[in-house]
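>> Question from a student workshop board

For tomorrow's exercise we were told to take the sequence and the ligand below, predict the bound structure, and bring the output to class. My setup keeps failing. Could a helper post the expected result so I can at least see what it should look like? The ligand is flavin-adenine dinucleotide.
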Amino acid sequence: MAERYDVLVVGAGPAGLAATQAAAGYGARVGLVDAQSTQGGQVWRRDVRGAVPPDAAAAFRAVANLPNLDWLAQTQIVAATQNELLVEHDARARSLRYDKLVLACGARELLLPFPGWTLPGVFGAGGAQALVKQGWPIAGKRVVVAGSGPLLLAAAATLKKHGANVLGIYEQAAPAQLAAFASRLWRWPAKAAQAVALRAALAGVTYRAGAVVAAAHGDAQLRAIELRIGKQMRQIDCDHLAVGYGLVPNVELAELLGCALDASGRHPRVAVDADQRTSLANVYAAGEICGIGGRDAARIEGAIAGHAAAGAMQAAQAMQSARRRARRFSALLEMHFALDPRVRELATDDTVVCRCENVAWSALRDFDDARAAKLQTRCGMGACQGRICGTALAELGRYARGGLRPPIFPARLATLADSDFASIENQTAQ
Ligand SMILES: Cc1cc2nc3c(=O)[nH]c(=O)nc-3n(C[C@H](O)[C@H](O)[C@H](O)COP(=O)(O)OP(=O)(O)OC[C@H]3O[C@@H](n4cnc5c(N)ncnc54)[C@H](O)[C@@H]3O)c2cc1C
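>> Workshop helper replied:
Here is what the output should look like for this input. Compare the format with yours to find the bug.
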C-alpha cells in the first residue's frame, strides 16, 4: 500500500534536513528519504573518531522526534513519476505518494581516468574520507591527496586526524587562480575561517598548486605516483592516492521526473526559481543538486524549499538575500577551480574508462553519442549506471550523458516485478 505525504524530501544532508525542519514546522506530514542509514549527507557523515560538529548536532536535533515526520533510512529510489516514488527498503518495494517533492540529492565526486587509476590503493578524495570516517584503518599509511577543489583540504585533514602520513596535497588549479580565490574569500567569513582551520590542521603538509597526477604505478597494489608540476615530472612512493576533481550534482532523479536542467555551468544542475521551484510545479530542489556551493548554501536553499513546499511564501522570500550571497560563492568556486585542459588528456589507449564493464579509452574515443557507445561497448551498463564513466566522458568532451530510464539504481528483481514499478515505468516511457 502507498504511503502519502504532504511533503516528501529526498536526501538527508544539510539541504534535506533544513527543508524537513521548515516544512514540518507548519504541521505538514513529511517523509524524509535517504539511501544512507544515518542523516547528515556527505559533509556531516558520522566519524567514528570525532564528535558530531555543533551545526550538524543542531540540525539532527531539530528533526528528531517530530510526530509528523517519517524518517525512511536505507531507502533507495528506483523509479518516479510526478506524484509517486517507487523505493526499495529492507529488500522490499514500497510506493511513496506526495503532494510536494523536495529533491536534495547532493553531489558526487568527479573521477577522471588516467593510467593506473583503477589500481587498488587509488581512491576518490571524498571516497577515502568517507571510508576513514567509517573506521577504515589508515594510521601510518603514506597518502597523497590530489585533484581539485576545497574538498582536498577537508579530505586530507580527516586522513591526517586518523593517523595517515599525508605526503602532500596537489591541486591542479594554477597558483595564480588559487591566489585570486584566496584574495576574495574574506567576503565569506565563515568559509575563510573554515579554510584557516583546515590549513592549521594540515600544518607541515605540502600544498602545491599547478600539479597533476599523470599516472599511478604498481602491480597488485599502488606503489608510486607520477606528478606533473609545470614542465617537470616527479615520482612519489606512496601506499594510497586520494584523487578527485571536484563535485558533480546528482541530477538523475530530477531528470527522470522531467525537471529542466541548467546546462550553462561546468556540469548540468537542476534549474530552479528564487523559491527553489523546478520547472515542475510541485517539485522543488535545493543544495548541491542545484550547483556546487557548500553546506551554507545547502542549508539556506533547503529552508527556502521547505517553506515554499508548505506554502509559506513569505518565510521563503525572507531568505532571498542570504541565498544570493551564498550562491555568489558557488560562482567563485566554479571560476577558480576550472580544470586545466591537460587533465582531460591523461588517459592512454589502454586506460579503462568504464570500470564496471571494463571498457578502455581506445574503444570509446571515436563515439560521439552516448547511446551508440553504450550499445556497442556496454559502457555505462554496470552497477554505477554511467554515473562515473558517463560523467568522465562528458568532462573529456566526448558526448553528454545518455538519457535515463528506470531503475536509476540497481534494484532487486522482486522490486522490478512489483506491479507499481511496471505502471511507473510505463508512465516514464510515455
Ligand atoms: C564524498 C564527498 C565528501 C564531502 N566532504 C565534505 C567535507 O568534508 N566538508 C565540506 O565542507 N564539504 C564536503 N562535501 C561537500 C558537501 O557535499 C556539501 O557541502 C553538502 O554536504 C551539500 O549538502 P546537500 O544536502 O546538498 O547534499 P549531501 O550532503 O550530498 O546530501 C545528499 C543526500 O541525498 C542522498 N541521496 C541522493 N540521491 C538519493 C536517492 N536517489 N535516494 C535516496 N537518497 C539519495 C544521499 O545519500 C545523501 O545523504 C563533500 C562532498 C562529497 C561528494
